[in-house]
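Protein modeling request. Please complete all fields; requests missing the sequence field cannot be processed.
Requester role: graduate student
Desired output: 3D structure, token encoding
Chains: 1
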Amino acid sequence: MKKILRTFLLFLLAAGPAVAADGIAFITDMKGEVAIDGNSRPMLLSELAKGQKITVGPHSQASVMYIATGKEYVLKGASEYLVKDTEIAGSIMPPVARSTEWRANSRVLAQVATTSAASVRMRSVSVTKAPPAPRAYPGEGNIATLQPVFRWHEAPAAEFTLLVVGQDKAVHVARSVAGGTYKLPAKLRPETEYVWTAVASGNEVGAGKFRTLSTEALARIEKRRPSERAEFSDRLMFALLLQEMGATQEAREIWARLSQERADLPELSALAR
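Delivered output (273 residues):
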């Protein structure tokens, strides 16, 4: 166990910190050859400090977003770029800029970046494991909807029961639900904690405990929800927003969809687990 831990720590130290000191911007996308201060292959979501140099190789590309303003720069190669206070400067090719309404939460950004970096590197020194079993949903934390589609291990027929935590009387009961999914016919109450179970032939096939977000938080999420055709970084930022709101299961689902789209970024599949 000590040997595994030492190996893990060496990988982290060799890779350098996932978050730069006094970070003012962070990486929202990468394709091809990208280096920061001469160190190749930075991690997606890594923070950048003033004065750092970004090198983008031929036919390669990187995107950088400023934490305070949400302004995003697309850097194309072959060229070198400098991180300045409020903008990216290009030595050969000027970057393309776009303004967004995103404002990254530095705490959540650091947490997600560190988690993904550790997960990617730990998997490189450990034996490959079988993919995890499908999670019951909603099964933990907050949810970003008042009318969720409940999911559990598929069974021929199950009885679904939903209760408010602390109350004995069921809010909703549905008998003989097939297929392992059930969409609640009515909306739940905001800022309320619920518990649910699905039982088939006397065996529990699904269960979870969750809390609905406030009306204000739900409105903020719906306002910021990107379309399937939105920019990659917009969908990535929405996953970070869900993470910030504590809707971790829904965030993981977005990480999973992004990882299918971008197999070249192993950080995404690490976040989906």
